């Protein structure tokens, strides 16, 4: 599927999303791991050169803190994007399946009370269906 630029592709939100996608892809690569490992090895090897000073320790602590802070946003952005895509795909499957109960479509956007009500309704429906199956002697159900 090709990336189709949105009409407002230069808004800060779209710029962030493009940069976040590119950064997530790059940071998840083997090359990024090797680069990070190399930085740590170089830092560790230079320890004796700098007498294992507090400044030497501060360099790695500051660097890793900054990288970790920024990666939290990249990971959350990536997870949000993936979650939305999975929900859209599941909704499509539910809508395409005639026997499915479509009251769960879009449930991820519902208030907690609605989610709990649907959960209770589905549990009650399962109990009724299991009772009906047991009365009918249906041994195919677990």
Keywords:
elongated, mainly alpha
Residue stretches low in confidence (pLDDT < 50, at least 5 long) are none
Shape call: elongated
Order of helices and strands: HHHH
Measured by DSSP, the beta-strand proportion falls in under 5%
- Rounded to the nearest angstrom, the distance between the terminal CA atoms is 40 Å
The structure class reads mainly alpha
Spatial extent as radius of gyration: 25 Å
Number of helices: 4
Description:
This protein is mainly α and 142 residues long. It has two domains: 12-100, no CATH class; 110-142. It is built from four helices and no strands. Helix 1 packs across helix 3.
What secondary-structure arrangement, pairings included, does this model have?
Layout: H1 12-27, H2 30-45, H3 54-96, H4 112-136
Task: Explain briefly what this protein structure is.
This protein is 70% helix and 0% strand. The longest helix has 43 residues.
């Amino acid at each position: 599927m090709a990336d189709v630029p949105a009409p407002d592709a230069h808004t800060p939100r779209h710029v962030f999303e493009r940069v976040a996608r590119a950064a997530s892809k790059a940071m998840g690569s083997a090359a990024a791991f090797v680069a990070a490992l190399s930085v740590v090895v170089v830092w560790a090897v230079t320890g004796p050169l700098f007498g294992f000073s507090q400044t030497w320790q501060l360099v790695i602590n500051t660097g890793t803190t900054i990288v970790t802070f920024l990666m939290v946003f990249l990971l959350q952005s990536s997870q949000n994007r993936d979650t939305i895509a999975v929900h859209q795909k599941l909704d499509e499957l539910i809508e395409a399946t005639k026997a499915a109960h479509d009251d769960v479509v879009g449930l991820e956007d519902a208030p907690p009370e609605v989610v709990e009500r649907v959960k209770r309704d589905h549990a009650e429906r399962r109990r009724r269906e299991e009772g009906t199956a047991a009365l009918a002697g249906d041994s195919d159900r677990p």
